[in-house]
């Protein structure tokens, strides 16, 4: 099962959820912030297909950012995460990741929690380069 809907965060952002066995994730130049079994994981931009089950978890909720918009929000250049899946705790200070995770866990719908967390973060960061749009 896979479903997605547009996010109100920034143009081109998409909220999605997946459960059960999946197909390969095809490269799209995007970065995702994912909620996987109570963990926050970042998927970097892919240059080739990745197995959908490469991040273990029965159900995954995600926020896919349009190309070029996630680096400002996450505080890391896209090239450093190319073809990788990393815990957000490897990129942000532990206390900040714990607070963000607790807030997301409080939502009945993890997609809504991811969107709210990204909105809070976006309010405190510089906007993405407008040329990327």
Summarize the entry for a quick read:
The protein has one domain. 23% of the residues lie in helices and 24% in strands.
Q: Rounded to an integer, what's the Rg over CA atoms?
A: 14 Å
Beta-strand fraction estimate: 15-25%
For the sheet with most strands, the description reads:
6 strands, antiparallel
Please give the number of β-strands: 6
The outline comes out as: globular
Task: Give the strand order, joined by hyphens, for the main sheet.
Answer: 1-2-5-3-4-6
- Structural class, by secondary structure, is alpha+beta
* Uncertain regions spanning at least 5 consecutive residues: none
Mean pLDDT: 89
Q: What is the helix content?
A: 10-25%
Amino-to-carboxy terminus distance: 30 Å
Can you describe what's shown?
The protein has 133 residues and is α+β, with helices and mostly antiparallel strands. It has one domain. Helices cover 23% and strands 24% of the residues. It contains three helices and six strands, in the order E-E-E-E-E-H-E-H-H. A six-stranded antiparallel sheet has the order 1-2-5-3-4-6. Strand 1 and strand 2 form a beta hairpin. Helix 2 packs across helix 3. It is globular and about 35 Å long. It starts with a strand and ends in a 10-residue tail after the last helix.
């Amino acid at each position: 099962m896979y479903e997605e809907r547009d996010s109100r965060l920034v143009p081109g952002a998409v909220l999605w959820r997946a459960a059960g066995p999946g197909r390969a994730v095809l490269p799209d130049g995007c970065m995702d912030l994912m909620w996987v079994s109570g963990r926050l994981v970042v998927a970097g931009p892919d240059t080739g297909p990745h197995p959908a089950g490469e991040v273990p978890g029965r159900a995954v909720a995600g926020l896919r950012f349009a190309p070029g918009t996630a680096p400002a929000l996450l505080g890391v250049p896209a090239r450093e995460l190319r073809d990788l899946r990393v815990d957000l705790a490897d990129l942000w200070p532990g206390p900040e990741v714990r607070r963000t995770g607790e807030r997301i866990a409080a939502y009945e719908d993890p997609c809504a929690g991811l969107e709210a967390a990204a909105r809070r973060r976006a309010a405190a960061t510089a906007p993405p380069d407008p040329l990327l749009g």
